[in-house]
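Suppose a classmate hands you a notebook page containing two proteins, each written out with its sequence and a corresponding row of structure tokens. How would you begin to make sense of it? This section walks through that situation. The first entry is reproduced here exactly as it would appear on such a page.
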Amino acid sequence: MNNKPPLPVRPIRATQHPAPTHHFTMRFSSTPRGARLARHLAGERLDAWGITYGSEAHDALTLIVAELCANAVSHGHVPGRDFRLGLTVAQAPGGASVAVEVTDTRGEKLPEPAPAPVGPPDPPDDADGGRGLLLVAALADDWGWYPRFDGPGKTVWATLHAVSR
């Protein structure tokens, strides 16, 4: 039937880890329910990939996902458009490097954390926004954003090195 020779395959050495090791991406409705579901599914995926529930890395990553998804719903919402969550875990020396990406369809509102308080951290009760990105900046090893490449909007990302158990 098929007389073509097989394509050559480059062997992977035992010490080499193919990257990424795990990847998850899904679109969610741009609602509080969608953000909550994204947080729950991210927690499930992380646990299935070896970043166990209750560990410091799992808690930090779940909070990062929750904050970025809440921001996508609160500040990146465009009626009728979803947001997308992406998780990528790549093996690194001593653990795993986890990347969280949340993409929304609103390009004119760019992420900017509120300035850190100078005095006691007692913001007014009616102050709205900015604290979520301060949490992300405190928990993640690095974070940032870039314009969405496949349409209008932006992707906000954060990375964290999770120590092996």
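The notebook's second entry, a different protein, reads as follows.
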Amino acid sequence: MPGRKDGAPRAPRAIALLAALLCAACVACTAGAGHAGGGRAASPPPAPEPLDRIAAALGCVPEVTVDAQEVREGACSVEGQAFRVATFGTAQGRAAWLSESRQYGGTYLVGERWIITAPSADALTRARSRLGGTLDSAPGHTHGAHPSVIPTGTGARRAADA
């Protein structure tokens, strides 16, 4: 695997996303520690939505790539279009995954505890009609701040132009 210019190897996307989810889970556990009730053990997060059910709305069967309590992720294709499907134990886990993934760009169909990524919004039409959800998109990878958070107008430049 080629390394970066500084010699450090690149971390695969799945590992980076899983790390973000684990950080979100740690924050959630720490935030709950100060509540009254003291010694009660926190209940484990609910199991993620069934990955097969979400992928079936696309008309495919996913090849599972991540199978953890907090997240299940898989990939499949339909008529030459590649999809990634992820289901989450909590809406907070979904939000953390989406936040981390947006830096890579793409088109997302986002449900309460699931996300489907696709090459275009048109590719998500079938799944959206069956599952509902909200379409979201992000431009491709940028270095630095996300272009949507940089003001536009006189003298402002997009992050990609900086």
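A careful reader of the second entry would note: The two ends are 29 Å apart (CA to CA).
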